[in-house]
Hints:
By secondary structure, the protein is mainly alpha-helical. Helices cover 40% and strands 0% of the residues. The chain contains 4 helices and no strands.
Amino acid sequence: SKSKACDALMAAAPGQITWSVNGPRLSGAVAVKDDDSVYNAMKVAFDYYRLVLEPSGALGLAAVLDGLEKSVSGNSDDGPVLPPGRVVGVIACGGNTDLDTYADMVGYQPKKG
Length: 113
């Protein structure tokens, strides 16, 4: 099913310039389980690094966190597990969301009173 959170990435295909630069350098791809994985990555980015990420900008972190979960559980049926000893770089970006939407996505409950 299509992500409701990552609407910024709904292009049918990568742009010609983007693909011509990145295509030869890519060795594979990973998938993120679902929107909840993205929301979790947004929360982790804020809780640990004080970064406010938009959903599409949190996809890389979500993929790494999903991979770590599979590594710990040993369940690799759903896709690749992060190789031990490998360095993984993640580009996390954007705060292109309003406060109410962001708070709803990461499960923030404002204090009352």
